[in-house]
Amino acid sequence: MSDSAADGGVRDGAGDGTRAVRAGLPEPVKYEPTLPGPVFAAHFHLPGEVTGPYSYGRDDNPTWTHLERAIGELEAPGRSDVETLVFASGMAAISAVLLSQLRAGDTVVLPNDGYQVLPLVRAQLEAYGIEVRTAPTGGDAQLDLLDGAKLLWLETPSNPGLDVCDIRRLVEAAHARGALVAVDNTLATPLGQRPLELGADFSVASGTKQLTGHGDLLLGYVAGTDASAMTAVRRWRKVVGAIPGPMEAWLAHRSIATLQLRVDRQDATALILAEALRGRDEVTELRYPGLPDDPSHRVASRQMRRYGCVVSFTLPTRACAERFLDALRLVDDATSFGGVRSTAERRGRWGGDAVSEGFVRFSVGAEDPEDLVADVLRALDESAR
Ligand SMILES: *Cc1c(COP(=O)(O)O)cnc(C)c1O
Prior knowledge:
The strands form 2 sheets. A 7-stranded mixed β-sheet has the order 1-7-6-5-4-2-3, with helices on both faces. A 5-stranded mixed β-sheet has the order 8-9-12-11-10, covered by helices on one side. The protein has helices at residues 3-6, 16-22, 62-75, 90-101, 118-127, 167-176, 227-240, 246-256, 259-278, 297-303, 318-327, 369-384; strands at 83-87, 107-111, 131-135, 151-155, 180-184, 202-206, 220-224, 284-287, 310-314, 332-333, 343-346, 359-363. Helix 3 runs parallel beside helix 8 and helix 11 packs across helix 12 (369-384). The chain contains 12 helices and 12 strands. It folds into 2 domains: 4-256, Type I PLP-dependent aspartate aminotransferase-like (Major domain) (Aspartate Aminotransferase, domain 2), CATH 3.40.640; 260-383, Aspartate Aminotransferase, domain 1 (Alpha-Beta Complex), CATH 3.90.1150.10. Helix 6 links the parallel strand 4 and strand 5 (180-184). It is of the alpha/beta class. The protein is globular, with a radius of gyration of 21 Å. Pyridoxal-5'-phosphate (PLP) binds at residues 89-91, 115, 155, 159, 184, 186-187, 206, 208-209, 218, 220.
């Protein structure tokens, strides 16, 4: 019996749906709920010596413990050498890895086409005397920058460009040079890709997106295999206090029960939508890693089990993209992605991403595919006028 089974978790060979509905549940206790409710506590009864896990609410909380086990079971099924820590947001988790592992004089390799906050992160790291090198995700371009690096940061598929890099290949090259590797697994979710199985030292993600999928909370996590590195990440969480509230942690855990249903539905519809968009003249630079002729598909199909719910494409002009977004009835014009309700936005409105004015990032929700595709095609027709 594995450790996770001993905790009331899922057998090693279980399928994704079984794993998702049972992930992180404690052993059943008569008259207790299956998923214990959120524990709201700043401090815990603590007479005498400090021996148990729960003392003060910034250090640990039983609601986090259940959620951390759940995420750990999804990121690394059947492994007991993986530690998972939850954070207040994806950025809190990302910062925790970067700032707990890097010192002045160290070098880190980041993608230059990743999440839009990474340029701000870069400036902060440089202000601390850390050398930052960047290269695009596609074509494994970060490979050429690894000499002397302490940490390699990957984001695959990249947001919003949906380029994919070969995690195994980059991990091998980084480890050969003594560098640790972290993968931002936000877009794929652990049901789409398991970076730790591909050799990465950290799988880091925003739980704000498809992992929890309802657009109602912010969360982040770090799952890692290197015990001493994870000790430093835990210390960082305590020092900075970037902790999730118990209510958010509990809502996240409840939401993970439907993860497999949501990703299967949303990712299947994303492919249907991408195929429908391919037939349109006004749509260019269509990207979805699940499309067999997408530039990302070959590498993605080797390391991903699902291709995500985000489709990106470009309309001829900014005005055209704005008219399109305005004409959609089933799709909210909003940022973020991964929710059960479809959202889309003209990414260029933020600045920061290297995208054209007509670039649209589309997050496919759980609507009926035929309704969604009809709405999108109608909005395209109307915005062409
Ligand atoms: C949203 C996002 C983040 C940041 O997550 P927050 O929960 O918003 O802090 C990091 N990486 C990627 C790829 C994201 O999409």
